[in-house]
Amino acid sequence: MAGPRGEYRKTAERRTQILDAALEVFSKNGYTASSVNEIARVVGISQTGVLHHFTGGKMALLRAVLERRDAAARELLGDKQGRDFLRAMVEVSRTQRAQRGVVQLYTILAAEATDPDHPAHAYFTERFQVIADAVTRAYEQVRSDGGLREGVDPRRAALSSLASIEGLQLLWLDGLDVDIAEDSARLISSFLIEPI
Amino acid sequence: MAGPRGEYRKTAERRTQILDAALEVFSKNGYTASSVNEIARVVGISQTGVLHHFTGGKMALLRAVLERRDAAARELLGDKQGRDFLRAMVEVSRTQRAQRGVVQLYTILAAEATDPDHPAHAYFTERFQVIADAVTRAYEQVRSDGGLREGVDPRRAALSSLASIEGLQLLWLDGLDVDIAEDSARLISSFLIEPI
């Protein structure tokens, strides 16, 4: 008999299936042209079944897909500090080279969400603030360790690194000859005495 | 009596009025929520009147607004070369600090257009290629003049500058403490022996 623990596991598995399908559908069609109905079809359940797990509908699914991506990045970053943190940032970009669909989805949503009325606006502004602060701390740590080039301000270096990562993703998606991991590594290294 | 020349001037004026209205409406509501009808209302003409000048409808209006923005940038860049070209790029960013609506519109459309099926996809990929090539030539010129730092590759510097400008716009729109002109100038200067 499936006890509460079994039920919980089943729910988690179903949520994972739904998010895999949402990512597949969003990446293939883009967010606007995707429907909860199509995502349900990929999972092989009804639309009501999807909405049972994600009551907020399509936007809730998108948010969950992006949060899962953030969780994967957080796993790579762990509690790393200083140079190790900066190296892990590049590692995150490296894994994203194999996930064009997610990067595109993220890029479109981040741009749409610059509109203060967009439902994901608070999510993105908060997310950028949190990341910018974490990267600033990493450069400060490098400075404490004597590894920062003279005249480099940790906050400006952090914002420049973050802007570069966002911009490289856009240029990469549009077919320019950039490498979202190696070009980020080059910029980050330009702030350091020893390249990462 | 209005001869052909008078007619031509009248048409040009009407097109300018329509584009001013389109920019106003797009910037206020975002592209998706805007309608040709509302743009027509702002001009004080009928929807048919707008479509007479822009047969491609809303997407044609957006494209024309963006092309007008590009034309303004081209005017600042002129036939400048080397350091002067790089300085003019920063000047373009400086003028954009006063045009949040246009920058937001551009950012959203550039992201949406990463989708190969998007009607503006060719426009953006081509545009990025043209700009990347022009910036590369500027850094090559600086190198010829002996002003490039040792070990800096003009192509990588150009793509890094372009990525940075795109990324800074996104962070700026989301309220981060960046200056789209001064932070670009700092990055560009990092490739040069003398800051611009």
Automatic annotation (TrEMBL), chains A, B:
Q: Which residues form the HTH tetR-type domain?
A: 12-72
Organism superkingdom: Bacteria
Task: Spell out the molecular function terms from Gene Ontology.
Answer: DNA binding
Q: What Pfam families does its record include?
A: TetR_N
Reply yes or no: does the keyword Transcription apply. yes
Any coiled-coil regions, as ranges: none
Looking up PROSITE patterns in the UniProt record yields: HTH_TETR_2
| Record flagged with keyword NADP | no
Keywords of the record, alphabetical order, are:
DNA-binding, Transcription, Transcription regulation
Return the annotated DNA-binding positions. Answer: 35-54
Name assigned to this protein: TetR/AcrR family transcriptional regulator
Organism, scientific name: Microbacterium stercoris
